């Protein structure tokens, strides 16, 4: 039986026949032994007539499945796909509720292009890094980037651990040797942006123009010169990109070192090695914050359009450098153009392929393309374009073609013509 695939960059994930409107997750986790038990309720709506739907769930055992709104014929779970076969065809537009009880020892999934992602044990806690294929390691989902839903995530752990997740903490209760943390994300979110972080952490909270900015990490982490810059970064990006799209922002610092930081909606995760007052660390703190506008509020509809996230967030690093009195965007653009010119010219920015979608050239070439647009439009029109793009598309999934059409219509300039060689041709364009 052939199962659906939503995006060719991520085979074996996603079902285009339906959309999830809300995930309600109740999780219980034993840190000792890495044991997860979950109850998930998904409110879904069919996008087409269907006699089945397929959910993604990897490495965990399904114990019970219930279906409301239609009669369930049978279900089976293998190869990380949970297939729910209806007793009869259900019409497009119908709303269903799927309830799945599951348990097991969660672990990352490994993809030949993207490496490992998902639920991962730390020395004393958990990190969930789901981009792009790790969400099925901890909850049943329709794992495609263009399917956004609201979330309630409740996690019960042994006492003494703090749980950080997407959205606002709406309930925290203690009972005996257990604690439960309940978060709600009311702004629609793609599955790969959902996360849970568990550790023996303390909370530090500041304010940036009315936006709560929180840092959660071990007691002994020194935030000076790195994470204590986040309120200034937030203030700068509010001016450049427009209103912050969520209720708050949280940076989690794990007790372990991490190779790279991790993007989630309303939350970013870093290793303790990022708490250092040096540019190579602080630029990535700015990068992850910028993703809240470009990647989380406005999300790609297809993985091929990853430059809409990474090019924009990389350019935000350069903007922060300029804003904070370090190297200007012109200097950085000249530096990275020279560097890219010396590398292989085999990357198509608008469709890099799954093996190159996180190549550093996507980040830098995307940033250079935006710098070229800024040169064409001038600062006032360029930043107006960025602010309007976010304001008009928050909560949505978008494509490169939509961005080009929007930019042309809003500015009256030939932005798409300027960007065509940057996006659709492999040779690096000359700097303008």
Automatic annotation (TrEMBL):
The keyword Iron does not apply. Residues 21-193 form the Aminopeptidase N-like N-terminal domain. It is an enzyme of class 3 (hydrolase). It comes from the Bacteria. Its EC number is 3.4.11.2. The keyword RNA-binding does not apply. It catalyses: Release of an N-terminal amino acid, Xaa-|-Yaa- from a peptide, amide or arylamide. Xaa is preferably Ala, but may be most amino acids including Pro (slow action). When a terminal hydrophobic residue is followed by a prolyl residue, the two may be released as an intact Xaa-Pro dipeptide. Its cofactor is Zn(2+). Residues 231-422 form the Peptidase M1 membrane alanine aminopeptidase domain. InterPro entries: Aminopeptidase_N-like_N, Aminopeptidase_N-like_N_sf, Peptidase_M1, Peptidase_M1_aminopeptidases, Peptidase_M1_dom, Peptidase_M4/M1_CTD_sf. Keywords: Hydrolase, Metal-binding, Metalloprotease, Protease, Zinc. Pfam families: Peptidase_M1, Peptidase_M1_N. Belongs to the peptidase M1 family. This is Aminopeptidase N. It comes from Nocardioides fonticola.
